[in-house]
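Final report, section 2: Outcomes. Of the targets proposed, Integrase catalytic region is the one most frequently requested by collaborating groups, and we therefore present its record in full.
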Amino acid sequence: MVSASDRRRAVELIEQAQQVGARLAPACEVLGLSVRTVQRWTCEGGVREDQRPTVVRPKPANALSPEEEQAILEACHRPEFAPLPPEQIVVRLLDEEQCYLGSVSSFYRVLRRHGELTHRGRAKAPRRALRPTTYQSTGPNQVWSWDCTWLPGPVKGLFFYLVMIVDIYSRKVVGWEVFHSESAHHARLVIERAVLAERLIDQPLVLHADNGSAFKGAALLEKLHELNITPSYSRPRVSNDNAYSEALFRTCKYVPDYPVDGFASLEDAQRWVHRFVGGYNTEHRHSAIRFVTPEQRHRGEDPQILAQRHALNQVARDQHPERWSGPTRNWTPITVVSLNPERDLEHTPLDHAV
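The predicted structure is given below as tokens.
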């Protein structure tokens, strides 16, 4: 805050400079002041006290009331919402309780204001990842991605082998299994079961994997050809080309009940993955598909759900238009999901895949 004597001295120096021919703007710039500041100081023929630091600011017309702010805090404190971020809480309130308390940004502001916005869990801060490659999917069961990961066993150095297949359009886990070891034979069993479960016999399908040996065995490739599946592979040493599966495994290993100390047995690992896949497919609201569950999108229910959310947002906006600076949140269903969109020139239409 500039004192009154400093303001008077600055105004005197500027006036002296103007008397010898200097223009106002350059004279103000030399002192590090704006023309508007000097004009405000010298209005009404004298140096006026700067009242900006002490003035009482009016409350914005669109500000949340104390009751609304408390309702947001209470919703975030509910046990079932405690491990969830605001984006998950907002859509669950819309879907399950037909309730709109505020936007996602409002939830974040309220939590930050009360010192409750902290990074939770063992996950590190997210990093930007390259988009996957090569194919485009406009519906379920057109492009799948699969990969494997190791699950810790009962003792150090002992691991179990988890294979999961995810539909990149719906994000549904369409096939999975846990084995004692990694092999192309085990991978073949998983893909056969997934194709039968989704009733895709003789239907064109693209299956993307990394360059692991378990996904490139001769017997496996022969089975893929038999099932009318086109194999697709990541570029060497580029894990981001299989980002859908990598993201799925990250979600799997960072859920709150993941046994970081290891699984007691293969059967224990299989039971845990069974529970995870069930919750992931039917309960998890996926951010990349407008926060619907993979099962809902796989069955084609997402347009109706998103239309209902849009209608609720419109009602909330009509009730408090001063709180909305623009249109409501985008609840338009995502129609195309791409695998490596930067390689559009190499895109192979799915109806020509063999």
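The first helix runs from residue 4 to 19.
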